[in-house]
Write a structure and sequence with these properties.
single chain, alpha/beta, 51% helix
Length: 217
């Protein structure tokens, strides 16, 4: 059973999400928070598997709450929600450790699948939406010095990182490089470990911020 915590300042939104999620045989809503501070407190107490985190809340917002939760409770996955597809707060939440992003007008099927995806340890952001988001907002940030961890990547791992940053899925990477999907998965796991990132979102951010790739490439 996937334990879910809902964090949204609108009670009607929480009620709608709860009805959708509780109707699933493998998902249970274990708590509700009306702001970021409550989300952090309930996460500490309930240790949910997934937090559905609205990014725009009064007081402590969802970005700060995400940062605290992912830092203190690495076993808790955060799925960020925003009213806007292109929102600088989404990139901030991904930097803070969110495992995915969905717009708040998402369909019930997409919301349910998003919860299951992040619970599996995967990123619930369509690759091309991820690169569009990051390409839009990271371009306004001056490139930072490439982290030392990049120098530890093999030539193939660096190649795969660039393909991930261009929005390619594992299947597309495997087809393009003429290798098996399992081989790509192993390379991805290795480069994530070397970079010290949790998922594709954080890896893509590093690639953009280190100027390994530029928006539109």
């Amino acid at each position: 059973m996937i334990a879910v915590l809902l964090a949204d300042d609108h009670a009607l939104v929480r009620t709608g999400f709860k009805l959708m999620l509780d109707a699933q045989p493998d998902i249970a809503v274990v708590g509700e928070a009306a702001d970021g501070e409550q989300a952090v407190e309930l996460s500490r107490r309930l240790r949910p598997d997934v937090v559905l985190m609205d990014l725009h809340m009064p007081g402590m917002d969802g970005v700060r709450a995400t940062e605290l939760i992912t830092t203190e409770l690495p076993g808790v996955r955060v799925l960020a929600l925003s009213t806007f597809d292109l929102d600088e707060n989404v990139v901030a939440a991904l930097r803070a450790g969110a495992d995915g992003f969905l717009p708040k007008d998402v369909s019930p099927e997409e919301l349910i699948e998003g919860v299951r995806v992040v619970h599996r340890g995967e990123s619930a952001v369509a690759p091309r939406l991820l690169t569009r988001l990051i390409g839009t907002f990271v371009r306004t940030t001056p490139p930072r010095t490439a982290p030392a961890e990049l120098s530890g990547l093999t030539e193939r791992e660096r190649e795969i990182l660039l393909l991930i940053a261009r929005g390619r899925s594992n299947a597309e990477i495997a087809a393009g490089l003429a290798v098996s999907p399992s081989t790509v998965k192993n390379h991805v796991t290795s480069l994530f470990a070397k970079l010290g990132v949790r998922d594709r979102a954080q890896a893509v951010i590093i690639a953009y911020e280190a100027a390994l790739i530029h928006p539109g490439e």
